[in-house]
Amino acid sequence: MVTHDKGTVIYVRSAHGAGDTESGTGIAGQRDELLAYAARRGYEVSHIYVDEGASGLDFGRVALQQMLADARAGEIERILMTDLARLGRQLDKVIEIEETLHSLGVEVIYIHAIFGNDSMAAFLQGMHAYMEDILSAIPGGEQN
């Protein structure tokens, strides 16, 4: 079943540009996975925002800012992302963006969300990503 949902968009970001094509973490892998997710749920994707080669610490990213402007203009109902880290790597700013989107009535779906898709889940997901970053910086630490 396909719904005529013009407000579903996809956001992809990778600091490494095309990234790892085998594991799907690059731009193309994220895009393909999100398009498949949207198709399974009957969402019609109206736009794909791409920040290729962009750090998760840079919140002035062109596609991110355009997506936020479109959300403020009421053009977005739902945003699909693979995980919270696509939005950013600085937890306080990610939470601020999440709260803004939710206040605008925009549903944010992280298809790899460990804890769910509400505000508390976003916080927990952010803490999880933060801890993974810390562990990956320690010699012998986990890297995902």
Q: What is the averaged pLDDT score?
A: 83
Task: Assign the structural class, choosing from mainly alpha, mainly beta, alpha/beta, alpha+beta, or little secondary structure.
Answer: alpha/beta
Low-confidence stretches: 1-5
- Widest beta sheet: strand line-up: 2-1-3-4
What share of the residues lie within helices?
A: 40-55%
Count of DSSP strands: 4
What count of helical segments does DSSP give? 5
Approximate strand percentage:
15-25%
- How far apart lie the N and C ends? 35 Å
What spatial form do the alpha-carbon principal axes imply? globular
What's the SSE pattern? EHEHEHHEH
Major sheet: size, sense and barrel closure? 4 strands, parallel
| Computed CA radius of gyration, to the nearest angstrom | 15 Å
